[in-house]
Each structure stands twice: as structure tokens, then as C-alpha cells.
Amino acid sequence: MATRKKDTNIWNKNRNSNKSSVGKFNPANQNVNSPTPAEQKFKEAQGKLQAAIRKHVQDYESSSEEEELESENIIDGIVKNYTSTGGKNESLGRTKAFLKDSFLSGTATCLICISRIKRDAEVWNCNECYCVIHLNCIQRWSKDTIYQQKQIQESPIQVRQVTLTWCCPKCRRNYQIEDIPDRYLCFCGKTKNPKLQPFLVPHSCGEICGKSLIPTCGHKCLLLCHPGPCPPCPVTIAVSCYCGSQQPVTRRCSDKEWSCGNRCGKLLSCQKHSCSEPCHFGTCKPCPKKSLQNCMCKTNRKLRDCATPEWRCDKICNKPLSCGNHNCSVICHDGACDPCPLTEVRSCPCGKSKYQLPCTEETPTCQDTCEKILSCGLHTCNQRCHKETCGVCLEIVEKACKCGLHSKEVQCYKPYSCETKCKRMKDCNKHPCNKKCCDGNCPPCEKPCARTLNCGNHKCTSVCHRGLCYPCNQTETVTCRCGQTKITVPCGRKHKTKPPKCNQLCTVPPDCHHEARERHKCHFGDCPPCRQICSKQRLNCNHLCSFTCHSAVMVKIEAQKPSMPWEQTEPQIERKSLPCPACEEPVTVTCLGGHETSDWPCHRAVPSSCHRPCGRSLKCENHICTFSCHVVENAPDGIKAGKNCEVCESPCTKERPEGCQHECPKPCHPGPCPPCKQMLRIRCHCGLNQPYVACSEWLVLEKREEIKCCGNQCPKNFECGHRCRTNCHSGPCPNSELCRRKVKVTCKCKRLKKEFSCELMRSNVAKVECDEVCAQKKSEERRLQQIVSEQKRREEELRNEKELAKYKKLFENKKKGRERRLYDEIEELDKRLNDIFESLQNIYLFRVIVRLHAGLQAAMNNEDLYIVGAEFTELKYDGFWDWFVRISDIRIFLKNEPTYLISQLAFILGGLATLFHAIIRGGRLPYLWLGILIHGVVVECMCYILPDIDNFWHSQTPVIFLGRRLPLHIMFLYPCFIYNSSIGVAKMRLPLWAEPLAVGLGVVLIDIPYDIISVNFLHWTWHDTDPNIADRHYWVPWNSYYFHTTFAASFTFWFHFTRKYICNSEGKWVPDKSRFKEILCSIIPGVLGTPGGILLFLPIYHPLHDIFKIHSEVTYFILLVISLLIIWSADRAPKQYANEKKQQSVHWTTFLLIFHLIVHYTSFLLMPVFFNPEDEIAIGLKEPIGPCNEHVPIQTAFGMTLQKRKYLCATDYDEKYFDWHCLPNNKPPSIGSQWYTACGVPFPNRVEMIVIVALICFAAATIFGNMHFGSHGDNVFSEKADTKLSSKKIKKH
């Protein structure tokens, strides 16, 4: 028989190698196959492990945070098919136990990581013991086991090759390498990655299991996919009993083997007796009877078991053999003896020679050499053939020791061992072998492992080994507070497991004065506060306390204020008995004045005032006492007032006669009021005189007509236009038909005039007809109109021909000469028509008609927007570029707004001057100019986009962008303001925390004359009712100055702040080597300057103006004072240049900036001197005209909502710097107009305006002169960081 290979898996050391067959039980083999001591030891260890992972009891309650499932209904659904087939619930005991464990949170524990298995975790279950383990844990376990076995086989120590296997951590069943799980399957193995569903068992697919039942009967499991073993087969079959004597009966397949109980009767192996046992499974037991049986040689007889008839005695046969010389030496045998072995062919001792000799002769030796292999297995015996055994090998050979490290010449039979200790690691891979001259088969390590197990409480008691230790088999008990409810958890899980929910009542004695606590379940921690009624007897009344118990209340006691920080202690929490609160039982109480009777709490049941008016009638009989409810003294009855009631001091409030609006001169009194003697100033019928009349007389309607007549002649006119001859009277003038005066009448063209009497006019007889001269005049006008229309038609034809010729010239290469002649002819015709048109313009009437016709036609076609009186509700653009930029004829603006052109020219020159200065000086100045330009464009675009700050409209200019909103010169305005101010302030060498505010104030100084003068000359218009710009200074909002200060300061701060962290240069104005970084430091402040400026409105303007309604002028002066103090403090602070001599070197480019400032201030100083604002006509986009009663909300920074009109009310507005006097009939624009004409108005005080601007110019000259010529000079922009001075400071300190 082939020998069974030894199992080398370290995890299978104590497993029984001979697995007992599953299924049939044979009583006959019960004693024969009794368990070995090793098997008993394994079963004991297995029982301990099963007890260690038993996580539930009959009434287990989950301590997990997962919600419990409706286990009963789901389990019933799983076993429904089984029970419907006829299966019994008793057969489902073990399966139901696994099902219930799957539903209880925290019951399933992974034996490898000793942690709870959640319902949605990926798991693997063993096919033998059905334990559930995390998928990643079993993968790591199996791969570690295979790796350790491979390490052992690949080690230098030669180990017999065995099949690589891994085992279940619980039952130690062996699995092959290909059985390593690589995916998450359901219990039945059909579905990959089963999803957790609340109506299914966790890790189940919900389909029928379908596994083959054990023992194998050919049927499949009928349960839905489930954990644990499949239940016994419920199918019914017909089967007979073990002995076969009875008819087949119908039984369950799982219980098909049965005994009829009758005598078996089968013939036993002795062939003499029959089986007397009851009907049983398997073969019959050996015959239990005894009988006399002969031995094999028939010489002895003995009483023995009938089942073992053959036996041998101890007698040697000793019969003479056939040779006659020898006897048989075999012990007790049957039959004849074998022939004598000496009579057969024999060989000499060395086996080389054969002899056939009589049995009486000995076998001789040959004379040849023995040559038998000696015990060494390498050499042969060199003696002659001999009968005795060969001796030991005496050959001298070189032998290696067992470990193979040394060799030596010794006799062959002698073993050779060295003294070197083996340094190989034992099978535990921790301890060295240390055996002398080890042959590689190092003995297994016998030291204890002593590693701490995963539980953290115990150490491994096994022999030192590789890989993971066995899981701890100890368990711990987790109990509730009272100890009546317990659960058993694996060792190490006690502190991670929540105590079980206990349904027993809490047994903690009460802390308060009540005999027992309110009934509540067992719990940890303090019991809940007592909610029972106090019911103590009060001391100050007869009521019992009806409040919740307060005899044992947790009170926070603050510690005494410490004198030192280290003496500070936490407040203490103590349980104290608080006094009963004030009694709240209702008690009936009547107020002092007797007005009402109501229920009051017991502790407040004292008569008091109800705070209603007293209500008793005063002496004036018109009013009642308004004193609060009080005790009335000396009252005659319950209605009239008493001595201490109110004394009426009110004026008379009785109703006055109809038409009288005067008060009664007497104080409040009884009875009627006297007649009113107040004098009224009335107007007579004619309105010329205003006589005085007593009020009482004026109220008499019969005398009113007589009183209003002053006696003078009526100043009114008849319908004919002549004055009335009657004295002062009411109503229309009488006797108008008696008028006989003369009236002038004209013809229809108003050339002829004649006088007629009023009588002829009333009879419609007076008429004047046009004569021939009038007819000639009309025909002349018609002829001029035809000439104008013909001129328009010719101009249109010429325009079309020019465009066609230009198109052909661009896209055709042939017939150039012909096109040139045609082009010259068109040019000549155009010139002649222009001459004709200029000659016709000398006629005044023709010029007027042409202007009116051309203006109306252009307005209708939206071709010429700049006609005085043109109105548009919406502008239409011819594509994107027409919206983006509009270039118009400069002559229109030179005629309507000459001062605006001067302002634009000044700013464009200033922008170019600052740009030249920045380019010539170099350094960071070009990037400063670029950042300011970006900042200006961002600010303007934000104002146009955001509705809450869209509150101004620029007048139109020859070049304008963004839908007629952004003039060209406005983009140069910001460099003119901020660049000039930045260059001047930079020469002051202020620190970063003061320089931005100084730049902001410098910008305001440049801006003030522009703001004051430009708004009066209609260079732009403001929103009429915006609350943020309602407070004005010469029609300039104070917030405009606040805006320029904060936004310029924000831009300056970001310009220097961002460069500190992005660039790396040698000085403040020295550029970085990377142009990209410098451009980035220009773009960032250009974008962040706007939000930074908006944030600077929050600390001062918005809280003071929006919440406390403080005038914007005050908020700006607060900002001005704060800024001046900061600048003054920074300028007074010692600087690193204080001890140096100021070098007031002025670069020639500085005079470019000085020149621009002179042009700027001079322009706005001369405008009010030489120009009149009433001559200015502003045509373009402005605040839309609309209804006067529509408002829109404005959200402030602090969440308040303000209101402003949605449209400009053309008949009721506060913008007094424009009106409609230049429009036809002084008629304001129509409702809905966005593009319309506004007319300037005269200065209220021209001299005052000139003086204000002159004063500002003087201040600006002084300040900017000191900054440019009295500071540190232009060397600031070329200085590098001074490292010498900083080192001096370090040495000084």
C-alpha cells in the first residue's frame, strides 16, 4: 500500500488525519473507532473556539448602531418552500440559528481581525463550519499561509515537497490554492456582489439555494439563499427497513433508514448461528457465542469465540522431514510439512558458487574474494569467502561533516562531525538552531510563542510558530447596570461593545424626598430628574407645592474669582435641594378701582391697580379720569370723580360750527361754546382785494355774497378779449353782447391784417382772405420742398453709386479705366450738387425747412441721433462693432457742448503725458499706468452692469464705447487722477499703511474742479432720487469724493501689497526681472481695486448713513479727518532717510505732469469765466423718462431696503442744473424715452463758482508743488533696498 504523505501545514498539526465518514452510524464499530487522544484534544479546542464566537443568547438585543431588521417575517419567507414541501421546523434548528445570527447586529465577528461584521461588508463563508469572515481578511490569511509554506520549501533546509494548502481559521479544513476567494459571492455562490436589501438576509441573493444536500441523496436545498448548513432533505420516498423483512414505507429522504425492531436473522460469519440483534444498520456484529475449537495442528482444543475459529498453539511441529535427517521447525500448522530446505541448491557465503549437496553436509566456502558491500555502502569486503559477517570498512576517505562546512580523512566506517553551531532559523523563523554540525533538518522550535493576541489581553500559549496566532479563545461578559442582562463577546471586544439594552426596571434608590422613583428601565449614568409633583406643605400659604420635584437638582456653582491665572478652577456641579417656587394657585382678587375681579397667583394675590383708566366723569362733564386704576376718595357716587381724581386741563374739544376751523378760546367747559371772533382774510370775487371778516359772520351763508364784493370794477375780460364793465361780482361776466370794441383779424398765412368790431366777430362776418402775393409765397415754399426732396434723392443715388464703384474696385480686376471715369463723373456730379445746395442754403426759409425735414427724417430712421429734441425709447445697433464703438462728427459737439470738447482734450493730453512719463522713467511706472487703466475700465463697467450703482450717464462724445456709455477720455481720466497723485505721494516716502490714503486724497484734490464744473455744464447727469447720491455739494454727491478716495486707496494698496509676495526686486519701484510677474501685479490690483473700495464704504458710510441717517457730508469729513491723521502720523514718524540730506533732483519728465495739472486746473477755471451753461445742449442716453409713482428697492450693505424712483419724472425732479427750455414749446421728453435732450441752466452765482474753483487751484498748486519740489525728489523711483541702514539698526540694538 502506498504510504500517506505527511501533512506539513502548521495549522493542521492536531487535526485527525483519518476523517470519520459522514452519514451512517455503525454500532458495531462504536468501540473499535473510539477517538484517539489527539482527536479528543482537537475536539476540546474546537469546542472552546465555538464558545468564544458564540455571540448571542435567546433574548439577545443588538448593541450596534445598525437598525434591527424584521427577522421573523424574512425567516418565514426563506423557509416557506421547505415547510410547504413537508419539512419540519425541528429540522431547521441549526439553520434558523445561523439566520438569526445574521440579523442581529454585532453577533457575527471576524475570527481574523476580531471586529464586527457589518451587514453590507464583503464576506466569505466556510463550506465546512459555515463561519463568516471578511473577504479581505481571508484573502490575506490564505495568501500568508501559502507564502509561509513556500518559504519553508525554498529555504536551504531540504524539506519534502508537499501540496500547498490553506485552511479555515475555525475548523481547519484544508483548501487548495485555486480556492483562494477573489470575489464576493452570496451564500449559495450564484450571485456576485449581492446588494444589501432590507427584506433579505444580509449577503443573500434571495434566490433558491439549490446546493446538493448532505448526505448526498440527489435532491437540492429548497430554502432561499441562506447562511449555515442546509436542512435535512424533506422529500418523501418509499424505503424498507435495514433487514428487509418489512414492506417499504414512505419516509423523509433525510430519515429514510429505519429499523423495524424485529430480530435480524441474518447468517453470521461463523456460518452456524444467525444474528439475534434487532433490525440494524450495516453488517451484523461478530457472533457472540463460544465453542470448543481445535488448533491448526489438531493437537490442542480450546473454548473460543465462535467468530474466530482459526487459532495456533505454541507447540513446534517437530515431525521428521522427508530427508529423514531433520525435523519440522514450524510452529502449529495444518497439512503436510514442507521438504527439508538443505536438500535444495545452496550457494557459498559470498554467493559466487552453487552446490547440490546432501542435507547432512555443510555448504563449503569458495576461494574467491568475498566482495560483499560493506555497511558503508561504498566499499566491498576484500577477504576470502567466509561464513561469519564482514567486518567494518577500514578504508581511509575524506569525509565532509553533516553541515558540509568542514572535511577530514578518516576511516570510512567512522562518522565525522564538526563543532560548528548551526545558524539557520528554526521553523518559527525567529530563533536560531544552534545545533552542532546540523545536517539541515533543524528540529522544530519548542519555545513558547508569547506574542500578544489581537484581543490585547492574553498571549499566545502555542509553540513558537510563523504567521498569525490562533484567535483568542477567551470570552468576556458585557452586562447592563443592574447585571441582569448579559451578552458574551470575544475577548478584546468588551470596551468596543455597547452594553445590552435591559428591559428590567431601574433599582437605584431615589435622591429626593419621594419614596420611590418613577418607573424607568435600567440604564447607565445618573437617573433622569424626578418628574413627580413635589406636594410639600408651604410655609406662607395653605397650598401644597404643585411643581415638579426639586429636592435633588444639579446646580452649577461658580468658583471664587481667582487672584492669579493658575488659581483658576472649573465650576462645580452639585446636587442640592432647592426651595419651593412661589405658589401659583389661583386666588380671586378685585382691583383698587373695582373695575374687575380675576384670579391671581397665590403669591401675588394682593389688591392692586389693573392699570385701566379710572373712567369716572370729571367736573367738565366732557371727559373721564384717565389716571390709572386707583382708590377713589370722597366720591359722591360710583360714577362721578372723587377728590383725588384727575383735574381736566384740556382745551375745549366740542365740535365747532361747520366751516369754522378755530379752537374754542375757553378751556374744557360744560354747555355750548361762545361765537367765534377770529378774523378771516378772504379774497373778493375779482381777486384784487383781501378784506378781514369775523369767522362767525363769514359762516352766515346769506351774507357771504355781499361780504365778498369789494365795489371795484371787475378785472376779467369778455370772450372777445375786452374788460368787463360791471363792479366786482361772482360767476361769468354779464352783458358781454354789449361790447363794441375793435379786434384785429389776419389771413391764413398771417400776412394780411384788418380791424373789425366785436359785434361783427360774434356774427362770424369778419374774415380776411389771402391775395395773389400769399399764393405766390405758398408756391415758392412748395418749390423749395421739391428741391429739398430732389436733393435727398440725388444724394442717395450718389451714395449708392459710390458704394457700387468701391465694391467693383475692390473685387474686380478688369475695366479699371472705365470704373475710374465713372468714379470721376460721380465725384464731379457730387461737387455740383453740393454747390447748388450751398447756394440754396442762403435762403433763410429754405434752410429752416431743410433742417426740420432732415432732423425729423433722421430721427425716424434712427440714422442721426444728435438732433435737438430727438427721442428714442431703445437704441438699435448695426452689429457688434456699432455697439462697441461709435465715431461721430466732431462738429455736432463743437456746436452743442464746446466745453465738453475742452474737457475731453485736457484728459486725453493728460493721459498721454502720464503715459510718456511712465515710459521714459521706466521701472515699475509703466506697470502702474497699465494697472490704473485696467482699474478704470473695471470700475466703469461695474457701474454700468450693476443696477444699484448705475446712477450716472455721460454725455455723448465723438468716440464712445459700450453701447454709447463709455467715452474715450474717461479711460484717460483715471491715469490723470491716480497716476499724478501716486507720483507725488511716492516722493513723500510714506509707509504702506499711509500711502494709499494719501493717494486717495490727492485724487480728490484733482477731481473737485472737474466734478463741480462738469456737472453744471451737463458733461454728465446724475440719478434724480438715488438715496446714496441724494446729498449734494454744488450738485456733486458727497459720495463722489468718498468714492475717489477709497477706490484710489484700494488700488494703491493692492498694487504694492501683491508685489511684495509675487515679485522679487531690489527696490519698491525697481521692476522684477520677470515681466509676467509685473503684468500680473498690475492686473490683480486693477481687478481687486473695485471690491476693495466697496469694502471701505462699510465701516463709516453705510452704518452712519443707512442706519442713523447721518448726512453724507459728515461721513466724508470723518473719512477725511481719519486719513489726514494717518498721513500726518506716518509723515512725522522717523524714517530711514531722516539723517540723510534730501536730494531734490527733479527729472525733466516731471514737468510733463506739472504741465498737465496746469492745463487741467486752468481749463476748469476758465469754463465758468468765458462760457455759459445755459448754452450747453446735452443729447444722448440719460435716466429713462417714466411714471412718477414707480419705485424700485435698493439693498444696502447692512440688509436695509431703500427706495428710489424707477424713472425720471419729467415734471417733478430735483436736478436743477438742467431743464427743457431748448426743446420745442419747452415740452419735456415723452414717457419711455432713454435718449433725449437736456438743456443747461444759468449759474445760481457765477462769481461764487469762480472763487471756489480758484481756491481749489491754489491749494492744489501748493500741495503738488511741495510734493514734487519739496520732498525727496525723483530719486525715489531708482533707489534700491538699503541694506546698510538695516545692518546699522541691528548693531544699534
From TrEMBL:
Biased composition (Polar residues) is annotated at 9-37
InterPro entries assigned: DUF7802 (IPR056704), NFX1_fam (IPR034078), Znf_NFX1 (IPR000967), Znf_RING (IPR001841)
Q: Please list the residue ranges annotated as the RING-type domain.
A: 110-172
CDD domains reported for this sequence: NF-X1-zinc-finger, RING-CH-C4HC3_NFXL1
Q: Where is the signal peptide?
A: none
Transmembrane region(s) = 900-920, 927-947, 967-986, 998-1021, 1041-1058, 1079-1102, 1114-1130, 1151-1171, 1250-1269
Q: Which residues form a coiled coil?
A: 777-808
User: Which Pfam family, any one, appears in the UniProt record?
Assistant: DUF7802
Gene Ontology terms, cellular component aspect? nucleus
Q: Where is this region: Disordered?
A: 1-41
A GO term, aspect molecular function: DNA-binding transcription factor activity, RNA polymerase II-specific
What keywords were assigned to this record?
A: Coiled coil, Membrane, Metal-binding, Repeat, Transmembrane, Transmembrane helix, Zinc, Zinc-finger
Q: Which domain of life is it from?
A: Eukaryota
Instruction: State the family it belongs to.
Output: Belongs to the NFX1 family.
Q: What name has this protein been given in UniProt?
A: RING-type domain-containing protein
Classification from the root reads:
Eukaryota, Metazoa, Ecdysozoa, Arthropoda, Hexapoda
